[in-house]
Amino acid sequence: MNTSIIEMKPIGIIHTPFTSIENMPIQPMAAKEILGTIEIFPEYAEGLLDLEEFSHITLLYHFHKIDGFQLKVKPFMDTVEHGIFATKSPKRPNAIGLSTVELLSVEKNVIHIKMIDVLDGTPLLDIKPFFARFDNREDTKAGWLDRQINLKVDSLRSDDRFK
Amino acid sequence: MNTSIIEMKPIGIIHTPFTSIENMPIQPMAAKEILGTIEIFPEYAEGLLDLEEFSHITLLYHFHKIDGFQLKVKPFMDTVEHGIFATKSPKRPNAIGLSTVELLSVEKNVIHIKMIDVLDGTPLLDIKPFFARFDNREDTKAGWLDRQINLKVDSLRSDDRFK
Asked: Could you tell me if the ipTM is greater than 0.85?
């Protein structure tokens, strides 16, 4: 039964140099040197205790500039269509984005980060501490992504297809 | 400004052997041999195209049995409190869970998975394809988790503290 609605409230805002949905790095791996800050709303700041001991954190956020969704998309990294769930394209049924970024420091309710690939003003939903022993996966297969072995990730940028 | 509400709708239901919140594996790494299925609601099934070529997928889901949140928690893997965002404990401001599981096969709108650590009946919000080249992180530091080096992950189970 697909009737239940789940309500989420942003816990903060991600600030980055990217003010337009075009020409952005499409993955953290393509944004290695990009600096950003996360402003956690003061009422949640206590939840940051001990976070600064982690070198990497996974951010869950809302693709707030995306309207509606498509079940099949031509992602930035390919020229043919795939099911939306076989891609990380933003036009998803629940517009949740996921990026694992580098944590530089935490000052009160502000987190300084690097390797961030999201639009300025993005509403943050959650932070998970990254623990390589639990979160890395080895011996993986990645279908169409594996076949794009010659792509130049560092220089890949978005265009306006999901505007 | 923390006023906006973001509405999510489940795209499917995760079926697992775990019918009680107690005595569950606390991470996919502690659930290596656990089998489950995901029933994607038919209206989203088209979005699964090409997903079966991936060996691992990241599930985002709703901790539907969790009420409210705590900003500081004593997680299953430690005996002292940490900020909620420095843990993966379920009692979070937005009760979103994240698990990267093994994909075995896809049959129409049903996905067979292994290494699943969630409660039976968990509402699924999103699926991201796992791509090791983008999603693994090396040379990481993980604070209090690193200090738990002697823990026996495979045998770690939940208790009723987040009931």
From this structure: yes
